[in-house]
Amino acid sequence: MEDQNSNSRRNFLGKIALGSSVLGGLTGFASPNTEDGLKASLHEADEWFENIKGTHRVVYDGSTPHDGFPIIWNWVFYLTNNQTDSPDADITAMTVLRHSAVAFALEDRLWSKYKLGAFFGVNDNNTGAPALRNPVYEPKLKDFPMPQIQGIKDLQTRGAMFCVCDLALQVNSGAIATQMNLEMEDVYKDMLSGVHSGIQVVPSGVWALERAQKHGCAYIFAGG
């Protein structure tokens, strides 16, 4: 029997093929009308990694939603290093949101508009239905297993770093556009406009994982 990881990889490659056919080839996947601001952001992404600090450095590979664990493990790293007498100033935990976890970088309005919970298989633990909001940015009630676990917004105030894969945003925008009979370019631009403040858009998740390790971050896989 084929495992879930194999299915996830195959589905993602299928989306790449779909997006490629919509846009006339993967080489030109980004529209020529893409705003200059995005291009500048991608080139500046290397500089963003200079914010990594401290003795204790880790990068979490968030390739799937995995019940919020790409965010939970980030919080755990701060918690347990604090317990062993390391202050936040001596810690950097980074989470790379890529593949099917990119929705965790996006505003609630996009979750509602594009039914991202259903699309990415993320349920709202408070309703049992597909999530219509981002459950890990500002978690509520049952979003995490324990109420003290912090979401992305609070973790950012502690120095935690989050980035999102631009390629996966493009690929998934193409698949969503096809499902909803929309223009891929419109969906993609909407996604970019709805990336939460402080979350860095990077060319690809695997690109970011390599950069983080070059800056001294230990690699931990945080996906399903």
Task: Provide a concise account of the structure shown.
The chain is an alpha/beta fold and 224 residues long. 45% of the residues lie in helices and 12% in strands.
Question: Which descriptors apply to this entry?
Answer:
single chain; 224 residues; alpha/beta; five-stranded parallel sheet; 9 helices; 12% strand
Blueprint of the fold:
Blueprint: H1 4-23, H2 36-48, E1 56-62, H3 69-83, E2 91-97, H4 108-114, H5 116-120, H6 152-157, E3 161-165, H7 166-180, H8 184-193, E4 200-202, H9 205-214, E5 218-221
Parallel strand pairs: 1-2, 1-5, 2-3, 3-4
Helix pairs in contact: 1-7, 7-8
Walkthrough of the structure:
This protein is α/β, with parallel strands linked by helices and 224 residues long. The chain is 45% helix and 12% strand. The protein has nine helices and five strands. Strands 4-3-2-1-5 form a five-stranded parallel beta sheet, with helices on both faces. Helix 1 (4-23) packs across helix 7 (166-180).
| Rg (C-alpha, Å) | 17 Å
Number of DSSP helical runs: 9
Distance from first to last alpha carbon: 17 Å
Structural class: alpha/beta
Low-confidence stretches: 18-33
> In percent, how helical is the residue content?
40-55%
